[in-house]
Write a structure and sequence with these properties.
Blueprint (H helix, E strand, L loop, with lengths): L1 E6 L2 E4 L4 E9 L5 E8 L6 E6 L6 E3 L7 E6 L4 E6 L8 E9 L15 E2 L3 E6 L1
Length: about 130
């Protein structure tokens, strides 16, 4: 069992940067692949970024490639999402997720591959 708590969201202006954090507790976070998703009002939950267990491999959704960076520090049980060049289309609730996988290099891309979710943190970008 893993508990996830996101933080770092807020109201920013277009072009600003923001860093989200996801603190994990319970079972050792290094056993899980981690991901960030987002959901805007009236839309489905969307893949943002994912990272494998040891942080060596990452993947990004097309809308955020080149602007966002996912990272993790397993000794702190924390995953980060560094967001740059924010625009109004990035406005959403951002969720952290943890997924079990037996493969150390696996990066999980879909909602259904994750077993544990945080409560989300709101990111609002004004123009």
């Amino acid at each position: 069992q893993v508990q996830l708590v996101e933080s770092g969201g807020g109201l920013v202006q277009a072009g600003d940067s923001l860093r989200l954090s996801c603190a994990a507790s319970g079972s050792t976070s290094g056993l899980y692949a981690m991901g960030w998703f987002r959901q805007a009002p009236g839309k489905e939950r969307e893949f943002v970024a994912a990272i494998n267990k040891n942080g060596a491999f990452t993947r990004y959704g097309d809308p955020v490639k080149g602007r966002f960076t996912i990272s993790r520090v397993n000794t702190k049980n924390t995953v980060y999402l560094q967001m740059g060049g924010l625009n109004v289309e990035d406005t959403a609730v951002y969720y952290c997720a943890a997924g079990r996988t037996s493969l150390s290099f696996s990066v999980l891309l879909s909602v259904g591959q994750y077993q544990y979710w945080g409560q989300g943190t709101q990111v609002t970008v004004s123009s």
